[in-house]
Amino acid sequence: MSKKLIALSVLVMFVLAFGLAGCGQQSAKPAEQPKPKVLKVGSDTAFAPFEFQDEKSKEYVGFDMDLIKAIGKQMGMEVQVQSMNFDGLIPALEAGNIDATISAMTITDERAKKVNFTKPYYKSGLSMVVKADNNTLKTFKDLEGKRIAVQIGTTGADEAKKIKDAKIREFNTAPEAFMELKAGGVDAVVNDLPVNEYYIAQAGGKDAKTVGEPLTSEDYGIATSKKSTELADKINKALEELKKNGEYEKIYVKWFGKKPPQ
Ligand code: ARG
């Protein structure tokens, strides 16, 4: 047999084998399952214990992440989390790139002009963090004229800017603000209290501490597009259900070690 002929018969054999295999596969194919609808959720995933990346599994974990997954389940939707900068969340919602945000985001009048917020899902507030060995900065009043690190676009940044003569350094993420404090580049960080406490506890209290009374009382909400109230309504319903059936409390206790305030 000529080389050409061998090559040709090999080719024919291949075509036959694959062709038949293809037929077999087709007839054995199970009926298609309808895929669950996807809920695209944006979050700045560097804000433990609300949203952060698990070092080992690389998954996004935290109170907000558990809550939004439970809400998605309740609504029969598959949640897909997209990580982005905090100050990019509302623009992403407005552009229709995401359906919702859960990002320890405080419900403010300013933001409510641009997005729909769900009912509050977590009570928070701002506190200040100073170096563990600092004994001069005790209250927000003591921050006058001092160097303060904040995260861009946050309520912490807004409040810090109101402090007289303070020099504000803005960072993309909260961990970067904490790093600057550790490095001695600033005197304090103004940020959400539960996040500050978590950071300090993680570091074993060696580097930093919170001092003084909380500066504000704030409510976190999930935000959706202004274009429709339907999704916010659905999320509210799911949230209510999770509060009734004990699931919300379970998630709260898991991350904060105590029951949610009534
Ligand atoms: N609660 C603050 C605010 O809404 C800070 C939120 C920052 N969240 C985050 N995932 N980095 O402005």
Concise synopsis of the structure shown:
This protein has 262 residues and is an alpha/beta fold. Helices cover 39% and strands 23% of the residues.
Q: What keyword list fits this structure?
A:
binds arginine, 2 domains, 262 residues, 9 helices, 15 strands, 23% strand, five-stranded mixed sheet, single chain, D-Maltodextrin-Binding Protein, domain 2, alpha/beta
The average pLDDT value, as a whole number, equals 91
Q: How many structural domains can be distinguished in the coordinates? A: 2
Approximately how much helix is present in the residues? Answer: 25-40%
Q: For the record, give the distance between the C-alpha atoms at the N and C termini, rounded to a whole number.
A: 87 Å
CATH class of the largest domain, please? Alpha Beta
CATH architecture descriptor text of the largest domain: 3-Layer(aba) Sandwich
Strand content: 15-25%
How many strands, what sense, and barrel or not for the largest sheet? 5 strands, mixed
Low-confidence stretches: none
The multimeric state of the shown protein is single chain
Structural class: alpha/beta
Overall spatial form: globular
Bound molecule kinds, no repeats: arginine
Instruction: Encode the helix/strand succession as letters.
Output: HEEEEHEHEHEEEEHEHEHEEEHH
Whole-number radius of gyration? 25 Å
Question: How many DSSP-defined strands?
Answer: 15
CATH homologous superfamily designation of the largest domain: Periplasmic binding protein-like II
Q: How many DSSP helices?
A: 9
Strand order of the largest sheet: 5-1-6-15-7
As for the CATH topology of the largest domain, it is D-Maltodextrin-Binding Protein, domain 2
